[in-house]
Amino acid sequence: MTVLDSKVPEGPIKDKWTNHKNKINVVNPANKRLIDVIVVGTGLAGGSAAASLAEMGYKVKSFCFQDSPRRAHSIAAQGGINAAKNYQNDGDSVYRLFYDTVKGGDYRGREANVYRLAEVSANIIDQCVAQGVPFAREYGGLLDNRSFGGVLVSRTFYARGQTGQQLLLGAYAAMNRQIGKGKIQMYNRHEMMDLVIVDGKARGIIARNLVTGEIERHSAHAVVIASGGYGNVFFLSTNAMGSNVSAAWKIHKKGAFFANPCYTQIHPTCIPRSGDYQSKLTLMSESLRNDGRIWVPKKMEDVEAIRSGKLKPTQIKEEDRDYYLERRYPAFGNLVPRDVASRAAKERCDAGFGVNETGEAVYLDFASAIQRYGKEKALVDGVKNPSKEQIIEFGEQVVEAKYGNLFQMYEKIVAQNPYKTPMMIYPAVHYTMGGVWVDYNLMTTIPGCYAAGEANFSDHGANRLGASALMQGLADGYFVLPYTIGDFLANDIRTGAIPTDSSEFEEAEKAVRERLDFFINNKGTKSVDHFHKRLGKVMWDKVGMSRNEQGLKEAIEEIRQIREEFWKEVTVPGGTNELNPELEKAGRVADFLELGELFAKDALDRNESCGGHFREESVELDGEQKGEAKRDDENFAYVAAWEWSGDPSTSNLHKEQLEFNDIELKQRSYK
Amino acid sequence: MKLTLKVWRQKDSKAKGQIESYQLDDVSSHMSFLEMMDVLNEKLISEGKEPVAFDHDCREGICGMCSMYINGQPHGPDSGTTTCQLHMRSFKDGDTIYIEPWRSAAFPVVKDLVVDRSSFERIQQAGGFISVNTSGNTQDANAIPVPKADADKAFDAATCIGCGACVAACKNASAMLFVSAKVSQFALLPQGKIEAKDRVQNMVAQMDKEGFGACTNTGACEAECPKGISLENIARLNREYIAASLTSDEH
User: Fold this and answer.
1) B63 and A52: CB-CB below 8 Å?
2) A156 belongs to a structural domain
3) Does domain B3-110 have CATH number 3.40.50.300?
4) Which of A169, A655, A664, B109 is most buried, by CB atoms within 10 Å?
5) Number of domains within chain A
6) What are the sequence ranges of the domains in chain B?
């Protein structure tokens, strides 16, 4: 029996959103002043939602754990934001953006939500420009575009390599305007500790003031969770250190279903780990694969010579190099999608051909691009018969103009000059497509509790395309939630302020205090990071880029053991009534230890390969596609929505069947 | 490498702080500065001592959360980097490193190396925005062309990460570089010109109220800014401010 109702409106896909907006309830402006909304998280989704709701007249309380809303991790997004503007006259349209996103997600997203995303995308760009977001422009003064992986048009708007920063500062400015007017009450350095449900509806949160340690009760008529993704369950990821699952996990444990936790994006081009002390991984933009060739040595003796420093990569002869992406995928070569490129790197490193001390690195080589560009530039500049040195000099100039800031960043971190020696790269966890299950209105299975941005599951299916995360966060916050939340709140115009002295708040606060006291009083022998690192290793080794039944079963058992040991042996110094970063981490890691098990359980349940989820049992057995991922639409075209029942091992699976009426399901091929 | 760390410890905003000394024996030159701090904290926890509190989040130089005054320089010796991007190869075996919080009356210490930068928030709330609501029917993004040179300069100013290094570097603890970056971004764009006069006056008034010092054109802010925000922005702020003071109807 399923209890899931996606509430997708009737009618043709292109009319669904318009019809829905016309029919849903609206709260009149005078009544909005009587209604409180809590927004947890201030990234693109939470920031844009808080500002928009406050502008409409709702009383908003906004929470972030950082010292300013501007520091949420959306700030780190590099590449750009997609929108179906068709400014470049290359035939882009709402339908094409919709189609690319559904296909890119390997047909595991909800069609109606994705269509709406494409529909509002153009409006996002208009809004951001009006706010003063300084997008890149052409000499004529109009907006510039570039193209990104997995699509055939130029629809990506960008602000150099800092698009996320500029968009977030736009939403932050809109928030500041409302904070200054008193329409948003801003709670910086506050962490949501639990959700409070009264009469079956989300009516508030328990929050901890991270500076004083004070436990606070905050009530509202609706609660929006926009707390981002859970990539840090792997310990090492490109996420910020503080990024966590806790807000999403708290609502899950109070009744919100958690969907598709196993859908993770592992980005192929990150700077490799350099030692056990490593705290996080740094992404290098996908754009580098346009000109870099990826390889490892063919011969094991060359690998060993490189690792021991006897040979340099530039000394390996051309015929002794294995350009494995070009070898395996002649049609797409180095530009295969992220999931395929990541798995291929792992395959070579698992076979022993990794080129650094840890054995987990491959080369991304710009030497041929430098040669090619050098010769071109010599010709353009009228230099006849250029010398070898001249060609390299010209080539390096062209590469610097295209990727200079990335090369500089690489050199700062690795202390090697990537113009002279190939870069070393390795895949890293980057984004989580799974998240809290939401219906078409972005409401979770708890009435009055919403999830937006990376925290929900709805739009990217099993794999997210580049430049689509920023689009989804802002779509949810600026143009979806402000409409849909009114449908629920229209019933609350006579409710009045929700009191915080009820037994529900009392109990929730008590449980929060007990847990915090437990950590401080436990006085175990091992630090929080000790457990987080062990969890991360199990996740990476057995629930990472490539998964199989045996490994997943082992992972479930091992995570369970780590979790038991954590509760016995964790030590947290300091007290509860002070700024205590170790105490903050302890709570987050405790939640990751539960999520990790559900994650592996979901991966075990989904015995098919789709997008970022690769099951070794589900591959093509023969023909041209031999060894490639095999999707199983007959048995797995569903959203796996998990219901908490006291322990991850007993979580109940609910299935939302996915229907594709406007797109034909096809196998992705890159051969 | 072996290092001696002299770290500012302060229990809370009211307590008196002091420098404490720690030894680390096995620091790799590949570590980032904050990873070195992680190692120190793990060591302190294992010895039953309280770890050093410091702000950090993205660890890739963009969120602006990390601070630290390292050997007398905000974000340490390397130029154009935040503390999280600083690597230990910038130091030598046997070095003694002094690590202190940002120093400014407008940035009171919260604990150890963590400071309260909410004064920056209040300056932004006073006028660091364009007054447009979210609208389902804004005019097309290309309706107003913006000269590329202006858009690029606005972008350069907008790359400020709000870390506060400019204030920490300044002998007067002035916030002029920070405020000028936001004022410049909007003053250069047609969308921002409409409220330009009010914006600059309100933001400067709030800046003064927070207790930041005056600018004496020393340029330490620009030299230490991890994002290379230019002093030209301060010149623009001054022009905008004087013009607004002379021609505005209000204030």
Assistant:
1) no
2) no
3) no
4) A169
5) 2
6) 3-110, 117-247
Per the structure, the complete domain to which residue A575 belongs is given by: 503-629
Instruction: In whole angstroms, give the CA distance from residue A433 to residue A261.
Output: 8
Q: What is the pLDDT of residue A1?
A: 44
Residue A667: predicted pLDDT: 82
- In a domain, residue A591? The reply is yes
∠ CA A95-A97-A103, nearest 5°, is: 100
User: Does the beta-carbon distance from A166 to B158 stay under 8 Å?
Assistant: yes
Is residue A9 domain-resident? no
The string of DSSP letters for A7-47 reads -PPSS-TTTHHHHHHHHS----HHHHTT-EEEEE--SHHHH
A424 & A507 share domain? no
Cβ-based contacts of B186 with chain A (< 8 Å): 132
Per-residue model confidence as pLDDT tens digits over B113-138: 999 999 999 999 999 999 999 998 99
Residue ranges of chain A with per-residue pLDDT less than 70: 1-2, 149-150
Q: Which of A378, A401, A428 is the last residue of a domain?
A: A428
For B100-133, b/e burial (b = at least 16 CB within 10 A) is bbbbbebbebbbbbbbbbbbbbbbbbbbbbbebe
pLDDT in tens, B35-91: 999 999 999 999 999 999 999 999 999 999 999 999 999 999 999 999 999 999 999
Q: Are both A416 and A277 inside the same structural domain?
A: yes
Decide if pLDDT at B100 tops 60: yes
A516 in a structural domain: yes
Nearest to A241 among B59, B110, B114 (CB): B59
Residues A528 and A613 in one domain: yes
Give the separation between CA A80 and CA A160, rounded to whole angstroms: 8
Q: Do B192 and A132 touch (CB under 8 A)?
A: yes
What CATH number did the domain enclosing A575 receive?
1.20.58.100
Residues A523 and A622 in one domain: yes
Half-sphere CA count of B30, side-chain side, radius 13 A: 13
The active-site residue, picked from A321, A338, A588, A615, is: A338
Q: Mention the CATH class of domain B117-247.
A: mainly alpha
Query: Residue A65 has what DSSP assignment?
Result: S
Nearest CA in chain A to B110: A211
CB contact under 8 A, B62 and A126: no
The 10s digit of each residue's pLDDT in A134-174 is 999 999 999 999 877 667 889 999 998 899 999 999 999 99
ipTM value for the complex: 0.98
Nearest CA distance, A414 vs chain B (angstrom): 7
Residue of B nearest to A54 (CA): B133
Q: Which residues of B touch A128 (CB under 8 A)?
A: 141
Query: CB pairs under 8 A, 24+ apart, for A53-58?
Result: A53/A481, A53/A482, A53/A485, A54/A175, A54/A178, A54/A181, A54/A183, A54/A184, A55/A174, A55/A178, A55/A183, A55/B133, A55/B134, A56/A29, A56/A32, A56/A482, A57/A29, A57/A32, A57/A33, A57/A183, A58/A32, A58/A33, A58/A489
- Residues in chain A with CB shorter than 8 Å from the CB of B117 are 67-68
For A352-401, how does the pLDDT look when each residue is reduced to its tens digit (9 = 90+)?
999 998 899 999 999 999 999 999 999 999 999 999 999 999 999 989 87
A338 in active site = yes
Domain boundary among A365, A397, A428: A428
Q: Give Cα B154 to chain centroid, integer Å.
A: 18
Subunit contact A134:B45, Cβ cutoff 8 A: no
Closest chain B residue to the Cα of A280, Cα to Cα: B59
On whether both A297 and A415 belong to a single domain, the answer is yes
Nearest CA in chain B to A74: B63
Task: Say if CB A150 and CB A160 are below 8 A apart.
Answer: no
Q: Do A374 and A280 share a structural domain?
A: yes
Instruction: Name which of A125, A139, A279 is nearest B141 (Cβ-Cβ).
Output: A125
DSSP state of B245: H
Are the Cβ atoms of B39 and A277 closer than 8 angstroms?
yes
